[in-house]
């Protein structure tokens, strides 16, 4: 009778907070990772803020592609800031506790920003498709109004479709375990602690991935298949090279983003044997794209490099020399 009563008492108990344990298996020396992670975060903030300032101050960059790049920079800043302060607090100050509302809010924001990033890549792919396949109609199709409508539609889609993720997680009953072997609140990592059935949580997570990320990825690669088919019809090798160079930066970012997402998904299979691998990859997938997206565009786009030089005052110094 005492055993049955204790079980009933534990099932009635609801934990008030979660404990983020950090990276599983390397708790003793995980603080050494704080320095590279902090540098990545500073790089992400600095580079994306520089992009926003450059696009704002340089009239030649007031074009749809760079507006979309500016929106991507805002999303990257938001994504990195959602997770990195808490991760660094865990690694530096052992601030592992997080309340349930804060954890569910983090789940929502991470999902929203990740889906938003995927949506912006789709908008950029459409921009490049129209620019290369229909160059004469590009100014009349991809306008400021197009960018605003596309951005608002992506914000609406992602904010609404991701709401059920934290709502379903909050409806679960967390009665005993509250330690999460991770640095951040991931949906499946949190709901795995629940005492009741989480089939609906797993199902909606799968649906969300296929409906948003899957459809975006399919449309992006379909756009580039049409771009490549159109470019291959050009007679001049120089024209082919110029056409492909206009979308090379975007293609690199897309391949990096979706490849990283696939790697994170695949590494989940190794979670039982090496739990640190998917946890570390998940953290890097949230902070590396924000840090390296601006660098790719800066290295591959001459107009953006020139804008950086003007904003930083390097152009005047170089011209004097």
UniProtKB/TrEMBL annotation:
<comment type="function">
    <text>Putative odorant or sperm cell receptor.</text>
</comment>
<dbReference type="InterPro" id="IPR000725">
    <property type="entry name" value="Olfact_rcpt"/>
</dbReference>
<keyword id="KW-0812">Transmembrane</keyword>
<dbReference type="Pfam" id="PF13853">
    <property type="entry name" value="7tm_4"/>
</dbReference>
<dbReference type="GO" id="GO:0004984">
    <property type="term" value="F:olfactory receptor activity"/>
</dbReference>
<feature type="transmembrane region" description="Helical">
    <location>
        <begin position="249"/>
        <end position="270"/>
    </location>
</feature>
<feature type="domain" description="G-protein coupled receptors family 1 profile">
    <location>
        <begin position="47"/>
        <end position="297"/>
    </location>
</feature>
<feature type="transmembrane region" description="Helical">
    <location>
        <begin position="105"/>
        <end position="126"/>
    </location>
</feature>
<dbReference type="InterPro" id="IPR017452">
    <property type="entry name" value="GPCR_Rhodpsn_7TM"/>
</dbReference>
<dbReference type="GO" id="GO:0004930">
    <property type="term" value="F:G protein-coupled receptor activity"/>
</dbReference>
<dbReference type="InterPro" id="IPR000276">
    <property type="entry name" value="GPCR_Rhodpsn"/>
</dbReference>
<feature type="transmembrane region" description="Helical">
    <location>
        <begin position="32"/>
        <end position="53"/>
    </location>
</feature>
<feature type="transmembrane region" description="Helical">
    <location>
        <begin position="207"/>
        <end position="228"/>
    </location>
</feature>
<feature type="transmembrane region" description="Helical">
    <location>
        <begin position="65"/>
        <end position="93"/>
    </location>
</feature>
<dbReference type="GO" id="GO:0071396">
    <property type="term" value="P:cellular response to lipid"/>
</dbReference>
<dbReference type="GO" id="GO:0005886">
    <property type="term" value="C:plasma membrane"/>
</dbReference>
<keyword id="KW-0552">Olfaction</keyword>
<protein>
    <submittedName>
        <fullName>Olfactory receptor 688-like</fullName>
    </submittedName>
</protein>
<keyword id="KW-1133">Transmembrane helix</keyword>
<dbReference type="InterPro" id="IPR050402">
    <property type="entry name" value="OR51/52/56-like"/>
</dbReference>
<keyword id="KW-0716">Sensory transduction</keyword>
<keyword id="KW-0472">Membrane</keyword>
<keyword id="KW-0807">Transducer</keyword>
<keyword id="KW-0675">Receptor</keyword>
<keyword id="KW-0297">G-protein coupled receptor</keyword>
């Amino acid at each position: 009778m005492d055993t049955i009563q204790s079980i009933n008492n534990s099932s009635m108990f609801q934990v008030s907070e979660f404990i983020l344990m950090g990276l599983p298996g390397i708790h003793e020396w995980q603080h050494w990772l704080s320095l590279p992670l902090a540098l990545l975060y500073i790089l992400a903030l600095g580079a994306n803020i520089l992009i926003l300032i450059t696009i704002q101050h340089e009239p030649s960059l007031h074009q749809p592609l760079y507006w979309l790049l500016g929106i991507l920079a805002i999303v990257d800043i938001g994504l990195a800031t959602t997770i990195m302060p808490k991760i660094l607090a865990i690694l530096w100050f052992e601030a592992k506790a997080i309340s349930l509302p804060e954890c569910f809010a983090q789940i929502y924001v991470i999902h929203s920003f990740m889906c938003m990033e995927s949506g912006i890549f789709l908008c950029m792919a459409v921009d490049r498709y129209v620019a290369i396949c229909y160059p004469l109609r590009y100014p009349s199709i991809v306008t400021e109004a197009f960018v605003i409508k596309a951005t608002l539609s992506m914000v609406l889609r992602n904010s609404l479709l991701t709401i059920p993720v934290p709502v379903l997680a909050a409806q679960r009953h967390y009665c005993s375990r509250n330690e999460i072997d991770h640095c951040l609140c991931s949906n499946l990592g949190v709901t795995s602690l629940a005492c009741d059935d989480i089939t609906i949580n797993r199902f909606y997570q799968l649906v969300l991935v296929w409906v948003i990320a899957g459809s975006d990825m399919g449309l992006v690669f379909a756009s580039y298949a049409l771009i490549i088919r159109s470019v291959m019809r050009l007679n001049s090798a120089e024209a082919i090279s110029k056409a492909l160079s206009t979308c090379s930066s975007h293609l690199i970012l897309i391949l990096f983003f979706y490849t990283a997402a696939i790697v994170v998904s695949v590494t989940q299979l190794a979670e039982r044997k090496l739990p640190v691998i998917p946890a570390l990859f998940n953290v890097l997938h949230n902070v590396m794209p924000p840090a390296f997206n601006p660098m790719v565009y800066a290295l591959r786009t001459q107009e953006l490099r020139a804008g950086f030089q003007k904003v930083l005052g390097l152009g005047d110094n170089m011209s004097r020399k």
